[in-house]
Design brief:
The protein has about 200 residues and is an alpha/beta fold. It contains 7 helices and 5 strands, in the order αββαααβαβααβ. Strands 3-2-1-4-5 form a 5-stranded mixed sheet, with helices on both faces.
């Protein structure tokens, strides 16, 4: 039948929000790589974030190994195929850079309550995004982020999650990206290589 049905209220709200965001949905295909790489981590104590200078060539290499939609999928499929055992770790030269770099802390936040670690990892990353959003000179770039939570990286790359609480974190992150015109490049790293580990524990 061709019976007309009313549009659900929640759909109307989403359409209104989409129309309001349209003027801000701009992507600069010529955006340069950031001259800084950020890392964030969470523990039972709190959240920590660090950053270090980054050469454009190293940033471009990180882009090649950034995670795409679908876990263990890289932008560069030829090199990704080298890890046929499903190991998502970065190549040795990137891991060596991460270990040798001099990291400076920019986020230190103690939790008021305990929560699921994936949510805390997302909130730690969100604190760093808010820090970046407050600095106009860091806007409009392709920005690498180092995170060791596989669950959160998967949600962050897609921009959504079946968990409503994690979905709220993803939406807040999206708001920061829209505001700052930052294009995120997510890289998963092992816990042993996480430079923000110490910053999240004290």
């Amino acid at each position: 039948s061709r019976r007309l049905l009313p549009v659900p209220k929640v759909v109307k709200q989403e359409l209104r929000m989409a129309f309001r965001l349209l003027p801000m949905l701009i992507v600069d295909l010529k955006a340069q790589y950031s001259d800084t790489v950020f890392a964030s981590d969470a523990s039972d104590w709190g959240a920590g974030g660090v950053y270090t200078p980054l050469h454009p060539e190293m940033a471009a290499r990180m882009h090649r190994f950034s995670v795409g939609k679908g876990w263990n999928m890289r932008v560069d499929p030829s090199e990704a195929e080298q890890n046929r055992d499903g190991d998502p770790r970065l190549p040795d030269d990137l891991r060596s850079f991460i270990r040798a770099a001099r990291w400076k802390r920019n986020i230190r936040h103690r939790w008021r309550w305990k929560d699921h670690i994936t949510l805390q990892e997302g909130r730690a990353h969100l604190l760093q995004l808010e820090w970046i959003a407050r600095q106009p000179d860091r806007h409009g770039v392709r920005q690498p982020f180092l995170i060791h939570s596989q669950a959160y990286v998967g949600a962050a790359v897609k921009g959504r999650s079946s968990s409503r609480r994690l979905l709220r974190v993803c939406r807040k992150a999206a708001a920061c990206f829209i505001f700052s015109s930052v294009r995120p490049l997510y890289l998963w790293i092992p816990t042993d290589d996480q430079p923000a580990d110490e910053a999240s524990r004290s």
